[in-house]
Amino acid sequence: MNGTTALNLSPYKPLGFLEPGQDILEANTLHRLFDRLENELKNVKSLEELKRWIGYYDELREALDEQRAIRYISMTCQTDDEEREKK
User: Fold this and answer.
1) Tens of pLDDT along 8-67?
2) Is the CB of residue 55 less than 8 Å from the CB of residue 10?
3) Which of 15, 27, 70, 84 has minimal CB crowding within 10 Å?
4) Half-sphere exposure at residue 11, Cβ-oriented, CA atoms within 13 angstroms
């Protein structure tokens, strides 16, 4: 590849914790998801269960980070639109 390094991207992995299309920014949903994470952590009894829990945590964290980025981009794309700034 002409001296460049190929990206080693992992294959698409379906959601394991979140439901597709779920509004994770709705307060009740977010509260329920963190409660579920907390309860699952209390029930971890093996290394495999801990790895699964870490995967769930990462999935929620990544989805929240994606929403943050989307909102930030939306807010900064059109700075003269006060409605976008409020989102």
Assistant:
1) 656 577 888 998 888 899 999 999 999 999 999 999 999 999 999 999 999 999 999 999
2) no
3) 27
4) 1
If we measure between CA atoms, which residue out of 65, 56, 67, 50 comes closest to residue 33?
A: 56
Cα four-point dihedral sign 4, 8, 12, 17: negative
DSSP 8-state class, residue 13: -
Length of the chain equals: 87
* Contacts (Cβ under 8 Å, ≥6 apart) of 18: 24, 33, 59, 60, 63
